[in-house]
Amino acid sequence: MEDNSRFIQGTDGIHVFRIEDMVCRNCRYLCEDDTSACEIYQVKPVSVLEGGVCGRFAGQEKDD
Prior knowledge:
This protein has one helix and two strands, in the order E-E-H. With 64 residues, the protein is mainly beta. Strand 1 and strand 2 form a beta hairpin. The termini are far apart. 12% of the residues are buried.
């Protein structure tokens, strides 16, 4: 089963959420294989998905 959580159907078509467009792109809580979730949120707030700020953002490189 494919994960389609990064797609949303709106009145003006399908919108694809890309991590490159979000503050999450360099957050320590990033889950690289799931655009709509992270280590903090099971589902990110819509404002974050749409490129807004995140109250839990931690702009550090993730420890491996």
